[in-house]
């Protein structure tokens, strides 16, 4: 069993919409992943506070108060704990993340068992300038100082980054190449309140998909994204009618199945960040990092030893 982590304090500033609401109602409404009984147990144990004072379950919340939930140390799920360095200089570090390893803390499960924690053991100043979903493998780029972090975020905002992925999708697209321009935004979710999905009210998003190989079990595609919405490729391929094979969350249409309790971090799909290109923040030289895909995401000709 993995050792206990250090625990964590979750903090949330109470908004105006909660005025006069009992704290137990507020907790159940804003954190639907937990039951009322679980929150009552935490309140009884003194682990829920308002402005640093333990609360009663019937206490009314006020806008502007700081709500804190003190979570005691817990055993995090096991994850792959290795990564490979693909590129390194004095300002940047690119590594290969395995599927199953979260990039950052989050999701209520992971704090220490993350790529960020592993990388910072050797590069304490490292900051990721983008992230991959837990089930996505491939390239994650870190800046090694604040100046480089700022410059890389500027390059990302200016759409100067080349991002090419591989995915295994259900079905066989008719066209070899096609664009997907479905907006991505939050939609209701039974467990998490909202998740990102295809939404007419979402933000613009663009993906360019190319079929690399058609198989009996689906199709191997290459996807270049010019925007970086959360879970964009999973959402876009599902919206086009070709959900990723094994995706537990997104179905045709690019939305969760009705009543789904699957979370974006749940595993099962096959997606890999294969190429990341960018102008170097100091020299302006074009840098392109490649990461070989896992066997299932390689074309037959790439598997041929000859």
Question: Care to describe what's here?
Answer:
The protein is an alpha+beta fold. Among the domains are: 64 residues, Roll (Structural Genomics Hypothetical 15.5 Kd Protein In mrcA-pckA Intergenic Region, Chain A), CATH 3.10.290; 109 residues, Pseudouridine synthase (2-Layer Sandwich), CATH 3.30.2350. Helices cover 15% and strands 32% of the residues. The strands form four sheets. Strands 5, 6, 7, 8, 9, 10, 13, 14, 17 and 18 form a ten-stranded mixed β-sheet that branches. A four-stranded antiparallel β-sheet has the order 1-4-2-3. The chain has a two-stranded antiparallel sheet with strand order 11-12. β7 and β8 form a beta hairpin. It is globular, with a radius of gyration of 21 Å. The termini are far apart.
As residue ranges, the low-confidence spans are none
Would you identify the CATH architecture of the domain at 161-269? 2-Layer Sandwich
According to CATH, the homologous superfamily of the domain at 161-269 is Pseudouridine synthase
Categorize the overall geometry. Answer: globular
Q: Strands, helices and their partners?
A:
Elements (H helix, E strand, L loop, with lengths): L7 E6 L9 H8 L5 H9 L3 E3 L2 E2 L11 E6 L12 E5 L3 E6 L17 H6 L6 E2 L7 E8 L2 H12 L4 E8 L7 E4 L3 E6 L3 E6 L8 E9 L2 E8 L6 H8 L10 E2 L3 E2 L14 E9 L6 E5 L9 H4 L3
């Amino acid at each position: 069993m993995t050792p206990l982590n250090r625990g964590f304090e979750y903090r949330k500033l109470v908004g105006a919409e909660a005025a006069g609401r009992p704290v137990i109602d507020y907790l159940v409404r804003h954190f639907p992943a937990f039951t009322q009984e679980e929150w009552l147990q935490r309140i009884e144990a003194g682990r829920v506070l308002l402005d640093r004072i333990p609360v009663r379950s019937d206490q009314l919340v006020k806008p502007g108060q700081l709500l804190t939930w003190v979570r005691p140390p817990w055993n995090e799920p096991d994850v792959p704990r290795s990564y490979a360095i693909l590129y390194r200089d004095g300002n940047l570090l690119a590594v290969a993340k395995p599927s199953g390893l979260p990039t950052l803390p989050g999701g209520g499960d992971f704090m220490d068992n993350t790529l960020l924690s592993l990388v910072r053991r050797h590069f304490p100043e490292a900051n990721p300038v983008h992230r991959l979903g837990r089930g996505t493998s491939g390239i994650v780029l870190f800046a090694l100082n604040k100046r480089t972090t700022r410059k890389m975020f500027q390059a990302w905002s200016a759409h100067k980054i080349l991002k090419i992925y591989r995915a295994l999708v259900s079905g066989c697209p008719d066209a070899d190449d096609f664009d997907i321009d479905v907006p991505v935004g939050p939609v209701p979710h039974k467990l998490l309140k909202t998740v990102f999905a295809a939404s007419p009210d979402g933000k613009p998003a663009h993906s360019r998909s190319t079929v690399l190989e058609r198989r009996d079990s689906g199709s191997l595609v290459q996807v270049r994204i010019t925007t970086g919405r959360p879970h964009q490729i999973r959402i876009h391929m599902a919206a086009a009618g070709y959900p990723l094979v094994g995706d537990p969350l997104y179905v045709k249409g690019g939305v969760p199945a009705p009543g789904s309790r699957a979370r974006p971090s749940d595993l099962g799909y096959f997606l890999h960040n294969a190429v990341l290109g960018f102008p170097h923040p100091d020299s302006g030289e074009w840098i392109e990092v490649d990461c070989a895909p896992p066997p299932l995401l390689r074309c037959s000709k790439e598997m041929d030893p000859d």
